[in-house]
Amino acid sequence: MVNSSLAYEILLYINSFYFGLFATCELGTLILKSILIGNKHNSDSYWTTVGQDYGVLTGLFIVEGARLFLGRKGSLSERDIPVMFSVILTVPSIAGVLYLLIWQVVVLRIEYIWCTLMLTIQVLEFIFASMFIATMCRGQSYD
Question: Which of 27, 39, 115, 142 is the most exposed place for a label (fewest CB within 10 A)?
């Protein structure tokens, strides 16, 4: 049987470093795209969409940071409530990454790689967090 707590903690540890890299690269890419493409398209609808991209990215940073904090806190103390909130926050976090992957103004090829890797880590964390919660909610066995 797989130790879901250990696998979940390892994924959270990896994601804490990858998220910093992802956030830095995504923010830098969005700034670069808004400068380079903004000079070509000077319409109000373009700037509204770019503002929406910045809003989604900011929301994703906040939600993902809170999700990682709650997941690490719950996993290390072996409590299921923070992990449950972390699992609930996984849904808007996945939605934010999907927005960056599909509905952004311009999506670069490198962003496909970054976002796909982020989605893979998040889905694996969701699976192992669900297994962790199931083992924590199960009654103790005194065999």
Answer: 142
